[in-house]
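Hi R.,

Here's the chain you asked about this morning:
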Amino acid sequence: MLNVDRLRALHAVANHGSIYAASEVLHVTTSAVSQQLAKLEREVGQSLLERIGRRVRLTDAGALLITHTQQVMSLLEQAEAELDAHRGAVTGQITIAAFATAARGLAPKALDFLRTRHPQLRVVFREQEPADSVPLLVRRDLDVVITQEWNNAPLALPPELASEFLLDDVADIALPAKHRLARKPSVSLADLADESWVTWQTGSICHDWLMHTLRSHGHEPRIAHTAMEHSTQLALVAAGFGAAVIPRLGREALPKGVKVVPANPALRRRIAIAWRVDSGRRTAIRATVQAFQAAAKPR
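And here is the predicted structure, written out as tokens:
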């Protein structure tokens, strides 16, 4: 009979690429991980890993065993979730990730909700973009992720994940206060065809969405500057370096010299909460979904 703890060690090494990284995730020493793997190799009578510099990769036998290990991990997670639901108490630990504006606009209220209603639940929160957090959710490094998708750029979640809608967020156009369009009641993207843009870095959801959106209106975007923080983008707008798309969720106070104007038609994105299907019955997951739903309700 294969030992589950040893399979878990192999699973962690396969996911994270090294024995050291696996030990960090499992909260044990590298020596303990190495010993578990050595015992597992003796059990199966085959080498499961091969070293490449400081990293390791699966042998053919290791890849075969990992396929079954992932199924075992899934079944164990389902069993733990069902037992947890049967017990009914909201305890243990849950790890949550949210992108920057949701981290500001939703997370404080949601975490306060959990602290007040479920004091025995330990919550670990991190700010992380969906491009990074969704893969970590799939491989069980996170428990819950807040995602975003724009109306014309849907986010495709893997089939092992479930999600629930939280809110629609509207984004406005930030312009220098002296811009010719800054006092209009609304602006269209056609009005901004020749504008320079301050936006997110290449590869981020919002950057790629802006490029796609402007090109779909027949405009080749002219990106003047990039910054990952809205406060930096707004500082550049205030200094007259271009326009920026600024969501309303988690919006900070505008600096002097910036005006925000609604877009026509409105620019909308869908905010949702995602978790693994296998863990859906965990009381902590259901409590966290409830907390973010409460935080998303309009005041």
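One quick note: The first strand starts at residue 49 and ends at 52.

Cheers,
M.
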